[in-house]
Design brief:
Number of helices: 4
Number of strands: 0
Largest sheet: none
Radius of gyration: 15 Å
Helix content: 55-70%
Mean pLDDT: 90
Order of helices and strands: HHHH
Distance between the termini: 38 Å
Length: 102
Amino acid sequence: MNDDRQIFVPSSFIALFVPSGKIKPIISREEIETRYDYCEDLSQLLFDQMCDKMAELGLPVDMALQRISVIVTETDLNLNDAESVWVLSRLTELSEPYSSCP
């Protein structure tokens, strides 16, 4: 792994790979960073699409999040269950400051 890499992985994401009762992740830091990059990029992409649909269809945030959650849970996005939950949490977090998307 390149020690020059300056990526911050939130503890909420690292926790996805720490078994209950343990303190160390079950995969390497490099693998966690790779999975985090993918999940964060996916969250940002889905958020942009969600905003577009909200504007196009006049959907409120909660309804748009509900529709996106179906896509995340029922589509093969190369996520494990815990990552799917994290992506949905991240989408909720991204949408919190907006009554509607910019």
